[in-house]
Design goal:
By secondary structure, the protein is of the alpha+beta class. The chain is built from four helices and seven strands, in the order αβααββββββα. It has a four-stranded antiparallel beta sheet, with helices on one face. It has a three-stranded antiparallel beta sheet with strand order 5-6-7, with helices on one face.
Amino acid sequence: MADRRDLDADSAAGSDDDPGAVLFRENGGSWWVVSIGPLLIAAVVAVEATGPGQIHWPVLSIFFVVLTGFALIQVYAARQHVSVCLTETTLRQGVKTIPLSDIATIHPENNAHDPKDWESAKALGDLSGVPRRRTGIGLTLTSGKLTQAWARDHRRLRQELTEALLAVQMGLGPRGGAKPDPDDEPDETP
């Protein structure tokens, strides 16, 4: 029975490899876009079938492959490079994941007309800048480097990121459990 309680306590505290619960996610692209090509081809087939002429299967087949293929490539790339996932201990922007412990400061939103230094900083991920239709969030890393996190719903990401960073800075592990500190041994006095 004691072994089971030890396992439960260990799992509640979280492990170093456990990124914790997902707090925020944006997929970057939606798979429904892939269905546009087949739907257009089906509409053309319906129009040609009800008309006086013949159905042009070779041409429609080529268009089907081209439209569907390009849509598949575009959605796959968007889901790889423009997705965001914030967990309790990590932030993934595109294909790059950083631990929240590497973030020193989250800069406030710029509501003034004058640009801030962080607004011209390199964006996280492998992209050259903040992706279209996304808004940057200024970060200073522990190395002193300015960078930008980004998301469509940047206000929610900022809120979740701020709370998660505060939890990491307070030493809380995944699932809200505190990581045990070996220096804080309880006194065993009766």
